[in-house]
Amino acid sequence: MTKVYCTGCGVVTPVGDTPEAVFQAVRTGRSALRLYQAGPEPYVASLLSREGFDGPSFFEDIAVKAARKALEQAGLEPSCPRVGLVLSTIKGNVELLDREDVSLAASAARIAAALGMSTPPVVVSNACISGLAALLQGMRMLRDGAYDHVLVVGAEVQSRFIVSGFQSLKALSLQPSKPFDAARDGLNPGEAAAAMVLSGEKKSPWELVDGAVRNDANHISGPSRTGEGSYNALKYLLPLVNREKLAFVNVHGTATLYNDEMEAIALDRAGLLDVPVNALKGIFGHTMGAAGILESIVSMLACDKGVVLPTRGFSELGVSRPVRVSAQEMPTQGSEFIKLLSGFGGVNGALLFRKGGAQ
Amino acid sequence: MKHVTIPSGADLSALYRQLAGDYPKFFKMDVLSKLGFLLTEMLVADEPDRFRPREDRAVLVFSREGCVANDRHYAATLADFPSPALFVYTLPNIVTGEIAIRNKYEGETSAYVLEKYDEKRLWALVKEAFQDRITQSAVVAWIDCLSDTAWQAEAWLVTREEILK
Fold first, then answer.
1. How many CB pairs under 8 A join A and B?
2. Fewest Cβ atoms nearer than 10 Å: which of A95, A161, A243, B63?
3. In this predicted structure, what is the pLDDT of residue A39?
4. Into how many domains does chain B fold?
5. B108 and A214 in contact (C-beta within 8 Å)?
């Protein structure tokens, strides 16, 4: 099977516009999460500045910016017919619902055009695991042989539409979120864009080994009590994992009561309770369509620097299984990590990253 | 491979009573999920052990519009009381979850959005989904809802052998 490497990364976040800057923010616990008073109810979120922006779509603008950074790092000319595009988002331009064609397909076409790409894009919209599912889709396109490189871009902007929905479900916290903590009480919406260039060429030591998507087949808006889908996604990867080299599992960790408990059960069932675990949503909030890509980029950098990053917001374990959540930064010799995500629709995903020899 | 369609504007409640009738959650669903539910009923009703939990069947739903029709319904509630019951259907993949829950499919579920119905592209994506070593069959659907009464809805039940031959 074709090996798939990450040859370029790009990010646009409220705490930095380079992977290095974002990594430093996570390392030092610097977040843009703050209280917003807009709308009928206040909420805590991590939002991008729109100062100076006057284009038609902020969502597409940040997606294109992140994509360009990743293409530049990969040294890739996007107009080549062997370069594919996968877009990951949940709600795209929904803030413009009253005004125009907000279909995700229209956004993807405009993003492809802005980047000068010549192949038709595909959008993977799989709730909160979209970013991970999009990376897996990119890997599959390379392995199928139709493309030599695939640009995977994830982005989400927040709006009254999304915030009001989570408020109606009582899923938002009025504090910066506390993943896996005893006092956790909900998530924070977040904005970001993140992109990776995937390639069959070994121009980078970082390999995306394999991944799986599994459904709980239980409930459309609540996770399984047995962690079924998350466990099954992990189970798919376990034969591929070098346990002594596994640095950490970067979990979804939304800081809702049910998500974090479900993940703890899935990690226990997968026999991963001895592996360090961290969550980054106490820094970025929940960046939805960007989360899988953004959190994977930060996790690759952490392995490069030999650390397990801290979980901002976590102090006292608040799940039923003794998960090794990293409250503080820890050193690691590991060169592999698992990215774990779950979302509405009962969907769960796991992806294994591995750092090989130098290029 | 088995192929089914639901004509645009068909009476979905009547179709539900004819095909299932024992799943009142159907009436809470948005039109996208109703169509996915009914298409799958048509595909698998006569399968032996159809409700036995299985991880080897994927659910792959394609569209252009995603859940935009329901997005407009939810947005209409914003001025008054935002409806959580409508909000949970404002994701293009909820239909895949509804199919998985009804049929106890614990395999891969994915929602894809394409610029248009492109047969070649759709089946290339389906073939790629079979790179998952557990997946042996898939419910594949093109469900494009322009409104609650206008859609394209068709689905196929495909096996690994048929796709990778």
1. 164
2. A243
3. 84
4. 1
5. yes
